[in-house]
Amino acid sequence: MKKIALLTLLALTSLTAFAKQQTVTLVVPTMNCVTCPFTVKKALQNVEGVSKAEVTFETKLAVVTFDDEKTTVNTLTEATKNVGYPSTIK
């Protein structure tokens, strides 16, 4: 029984070893006021797996760091679109 538990633990550990932090830059062209980035940032932070989101009005960019085992770039762009700010990969 201990052998099975150890093998299971090793298998789970090796699976999580493949998870990797990714960073993507999104263009959010419809941000037209200085408060828009707050909405976009909050939407991105609410996506499971996002560890950091920096959104800048002047450049209309969102730089997002996320765990690629928990979310995808498509999910991130959907999150911004769902709050009224469609985005694309830069």
UniProtKB/TrEMBL annotation:
The keyword Membrane does not apply. Residues 1-19 form the signal peptide. Residues 22-88 form the HMA domain. GO terms for molecular function: mercury ion binding; mercury ion transmembrane transporter activity. Its main location: periplasm. SUPFAM superfamilies: HMA, heavy metal-associated domain. Keywords: Mercuric resistance, Mercury, Metal-binding, Periplasm, Signal. InterPro entries: Heavy-metal-associated_CS, HMA_dom, HMA_dom_sf, MerP, MerP/CopZ. GO terms for cellular component: periplasmic space. It is found in: Periplasm. Monomer. NCBIfam families: MerP. Belongs to the MerP family. Involved in mercury resistance. Acts as a mercury scavenger that specifically binds to a mercuric ion in the periplasm and probably passes it to the cytoplasmic mercuric reductase MerA via the mercuric transport protein MerT. This is Periplasmic mercury ion-binding protein. The gene is merP2.
